[in-house]
């Protein structure tokens, strides 16, 4: 019998376990179910989460939904 391994890592803000899924990828965005912090996977072995990277260039108008559309695979052009 094959045992399904649940992958999880801790939120860098509140320390809550966040379920990762079967096929994690570096740069994948996740949402903490407790503190609603947006985090991304920065390492796979071991799985490490960090706060979502935001560009420091002030000339770019950041749209938080842009990242979630990419995460969800949706295109709202």
Overview of the molecule:
By secondary structure, this protein is an alpha+beta fold. The protein has one helix at 64-72; strands at 8-10, 17-19, 29-31, 38-44, 47-51. Strand 3 and strand 4 (38-44) form a beta hairpin. The protein has one domain: Rubrerythrin, domain 2 (Single Sheet). The mean pLDDT is 80. The chain is built from 1 helix and 5 strands, in the order E-E-E-E-E-H. It has a 3-stranded antiparallel sheet with strand order 3-4-5. Strands 1-2 form a two-stranded antiparallel ribbon.
Mean pLDDT: 80
Tally the structural domains: 1
As a percent range, the share of strand residues is 25-35%
Unreliable runs: none
By CATH, the architecture is named Single Sheet
Summarize the structure.
The chain has one helix and five strands; from the N terminus they run E-E-E-E-E-H.
Would you spell out the secondary-structure blueprint of this structure?
Blueprint: E1 8-10, E2 17-19, E3 29-31, E4 38-44, E5 47-51, H1 64-72
Antiparallel strand pairs: 1-2, 3-4, 4-5
Which short descriptors sum up this protein?
two-stranded antiparallel sheet; 1 helix; alpha+beta; Rubrerythrin, domain 2; 77 residues; globular; 27% strand
């Amino acid at each position: 019998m094959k045992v399904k391994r649940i992958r999880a890592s801790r939120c860098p803000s509140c320390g809550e376990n966040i379920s990762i899924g079967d096929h994690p990828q570096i740069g994948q965005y996740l949402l903490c179910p407790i503190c609603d912090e947006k985090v991304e996977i920065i390492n796979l072995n071991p799985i490490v989460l960090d706060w979502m990277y935001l560009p420091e260039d002030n000339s770019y108008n950041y749209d938080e939904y842009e990242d979630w559309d990419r995460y969800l695979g949706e295109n709202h052009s």
